[in-house]
Amino acid sequence: MHILPTSPQVRVTLSYFVTFIAIGMCTGLLGPALPHLAEMTGSSMGQIGILFTARALGTMLGSVLSGALIDRFDGHRVLVAMLLLMAAGLFAVPFSPALMLLTAVMFLLGMAEVSVNAGGNTLLLWNHGPASPPWVSALHFCFGLGNMLAPLVVVAVLYLQLSFAWAFWLVALYAVVLSVPLLRHSSPRPPDDTASDRPDPPPHDGVRLAIFLAMFGLYVGLEITFAGWITAYGMLNGLAPGDAALMVTLFWLTLSAGRLLAIPLLRRLSPWKVLRGCLALGLFSALALHFLWLPLPLVALLFGLACSAIFPILFGLSHQLMTLNGRTTGWIFLASGTGGMTLPSLTGPLLERAGTGAFPLLLAALVGLLSLGLVALRARVRRSGH
C-alpha cells in the first residue's frame, strides 16, 4: 500500500497547488483595490459594488460551462485556456476606465476563476481517487493562501510608489507562467468504473446530490456572510474602523491555517467526525458572539477555524459518495455561487430591521441548517448501504 502518490501524481498535484494560489490572489485583489477602481472609474462606493454582482454572475455561468468542458476536452488544456483568460482580464482591469467596461471584465474574471477552481478540484479527485480528502484540503489551503497574499501585493506595489495596476499585472504574469507546467503534464482521466479491481461505483441518487448542493450553498453563504459583514458588525458595536477591519483578517488567517491542519487530521479521523467538530465549534462561536462570552477577535479566530475544513471535506465526501464528473462539479460550484450571492445580500436588510443582535443568530441558524444537512446525508448513506 502506497502512503504517498507516485512522482507524476506529485508533480501534477503541485501544479494544481500553485494554480490555486493564483486564483486565490485574483479573487483577493478586488477588495483591496476597490477604492482605486472607484477612483479610476469616477464611481461612488455604492456604484462600484456592482463589480461583486458581476463577478458572482460570471461565477455561476462558469460553474456550468467548466463542467461540460472538463468532461469533453483535455482537462489541462481547459485549465490553461481559463488561466490565460483570467490573465487577460487582470491585464485589462487598469485599462477599463468606464464602469460598464470594468463590470464586463469582472464578469469574465468570475467565469475564468471558477472554471479553474472547479476544473482543478475535479482533476485532483481523478488524480488521487479515494485518497483525495487530504489533498483537497491542501488545495484549498493554497486558495486561502492566495487570498492572504493579494493584499500584500497591493501594499508592496503602493509602497514602491507604483501604480495599483501593477498588482493586477503581476498576478496576470504569474497566471501566464503557470500554463507552462500544466501543458507538460498529462491530464488525469476519470476513473474507470468498469475495472475489475475497483469497487462498485456509488449509486445515482438525486436526493443525495440535492443534500450536497444545499450544504455547499449554505456553507459558502455562511463563509461570505461572516467575512463580508464582520467588519460592519464590529463598527456598529463600537470598534474603531481599523480594529474592525482586522476581524476579517483574523478570520481568513485561521481558515487557511485550519485547512493545513486538516491534512494530518484526516489521516487519523473520519471526515464525518471532523465535520461534526467543525460545526460544533462554529455553533459555539456564534453563541459566544451572541452572549458575549468571548471578545470579538477570539470569535473571529474560532469561527475561521470552524469554517476551514468544511468545504474541502464536503467535496472529498461528494467524490466518495457520488459519481463525480465535471458536470456534477459544475453544479456544486453553481450551488456555492448561488449561496454566496444570496445569503450575504440578505444580511444587510436583516441588520437594518432587527439590529446587530441578529447577526450572531443568523450565523447560528446557518450552522444549524448545515448540521441538519449532515444528519440527513448520513442517514441517506446508511439507508442505501453505500
UniProtKB/TrEMBL annotation:
Q: Where are the transmembrane segments?
A: 12-34, 46-70, 77-95, 101-126, 138-160, 166-185, 206-232, 244-262, 274-293, 299-318, 330-351, 357-377
Q: Could you name the domain of life of the organism this protein comes from?
A: Bacteria
Entry keywords, A to Z: Membrane, Transmembrane, Transmembrane helix
List the Pfam families hit by this protein, alphabetically. Answer: MFS_1 (PF07690)
Query: What range(s) does the Major facilitator superfamily (MFS) profile domain occupy?
Result: 12-383
Q: What is this protein called?
A: MFS transporter
What sections of the sequence does the record tag as coiled-coil?
none
Gene3D superfamilies the record matches: MFS general substrate transporter like domains
InterPro entries registered for this protein in UniProt: MFS, MFS_dom, MFS_trans_sf
Record PROSITE patterns: MFS (PS50850)
